[in-house]
Amino acid sequence: MKTQIELWKEGRTRLTNQLINIKSEDLPKKLGESPNSAGFLIRHIAEVELLFAKNVFGNMEAKVDAQTVKAGKDTGQWTDLESLKTIIEEAGIQLEKAIESQQNWEGVVETKEFGKKTKAEALGRITTHTAYHAGQLAIVLKYGK
Q: Which residues, other chains included, contact 118 with Cβ-Cβ below 8 Å and sequence gap of 6+?
C-alpha cells in the first residue's frame, strides 16, 4: 500500500507544487483560444479525483458535485482561490484514504468513462489525469492572459 501512495503523491506534486505560488489574478487566465482557464483546470482536477475516490475506489466519505464535468466547459465561475485550494486539499485527503483502503489491486472496476480497468490501472489513470491537467495549468499560468 505504501508504494501506491508514494507513486500517487509524487505524481500529484505536478499540481501541488504549482498551487504554492498561484494568485487570484491567475485563475481567469487562458492560453489563446483555449477553452479552459486556470481556475477551471484546478476545479476539474479536484472533482475528478473526488469522483475516483468515491466511484472507483469506494470512499463514500468523498462528496463531489462535479460542476466542471456537468457543464462540459469553462463557465468562468472558478475564480475563488481559497475555495479551489480547499477542494484540491479535500480531494487529496479523500483520494489518499481511498487508495489506502484498497485490498485487491487486481480487482476490476467499470465506469462508463473508461470501461473496465483493474484498480491498479485506475490508479494510473487518475494519477496521469491529474498530471496531464497540471501540465496544462503550468502552461496557462506561464503564458496565459
A: 105, 106, 107, 108, 109
Parallel, antiparallel, or unpaired for β 115-118 and 108-111?
Answer: antiparallel
Q: Would you say residue 113 has pLDDT above 90?
A: no
**Cα(36)–Cα(28) distance, rounded to whole angstroms?**
9
Q: Which of 25-29, 37-41, 72-76, 96-100 has the least mean pLDDT?
A: 72-76
| Average pLDDT over every residue of 92-117 | 96
CA angle 95, 128, 65 (to 5 degrees): 45
Sorted by sequence, the CB contacts under 8 Å of residue 134 that are 6+ apart come out as 14, 15, 18, 45
Distances in whole angstroms, Cα of residue 95 to Cα of each of 43, 76, 106: 15, 26, 18
Residue 110 backbone phi and psi in degrees, to 5: -135, 135
